[in-house]
Design brief:
mainly alpha
């Protein structure tokens, strides 16, 4: 399975917020966009979705930014992936309305792929956001971005 860009960016935002939790000022969408080379407008939509799902608190204006609503230890990757991914159909036969496979019901590939997907999600269910970051160090391979918002 390949994660969508939406899920990838969602995880990056959550990881960045977890890594910068101890800062006096929360990270902003502009800061995260700059750090990862991602469109600010795209990240704004992602942040709003993460807020709607109860993972982020967003504050507008001077001194505003993004903060985790739950401790990083309570945010499970499997849950985030399930809520941000739109399609877990690895092959056409997973979706009965689209299935035209002539081997459906005869081959064992469908069952094997379902088992693989279940194991994939089980691994993600055993990992929290806290497991992925070093507090105080944004997840940028050690690179710290100096960001000063415009007045």
């Amino acid at each position: 399975m390949r994660l969508t860009q939406w899920t990838d960016y969602s995880l990056r935002v959550l990881m960045y917020c977890a890594a910068t939790e101890s800062r006096p000022t929360p990270p902003t969408i502009s800061e995260i966009a700059l750090a990862h080379g991602i469109s600010r407008s795209h990240l704004t939509k992602i942040a709003m979705t993460l807020a709607a799902n109860g993972w982020l608190e967003t504050t507008r204006g001077r001194g505003g930014g993004l903060r985790l609503l739950k401790p990083a230890e309570q945010i499970v990757l499997g849950t985030v992936v399930r809520q941000t991914e739109t399609d877990f159909n690895l092959v056409e036969c997973f979706d009965a309305s689209l299935n035209t496979c002539r081997l459906d019901g005869l081959c064992l590939l469908k069952r094997t792929l379902k088992d693989a997907m279940a194991q994939y999600l089980a691994v993600l269910d055993g990992v929290t956001l806290a497991d992925l970051v070093t507090p105080g160090q944004p997840p940028l391979g050690g690179q710290v971005i100096s960001f000063t918002p415009r007045a």
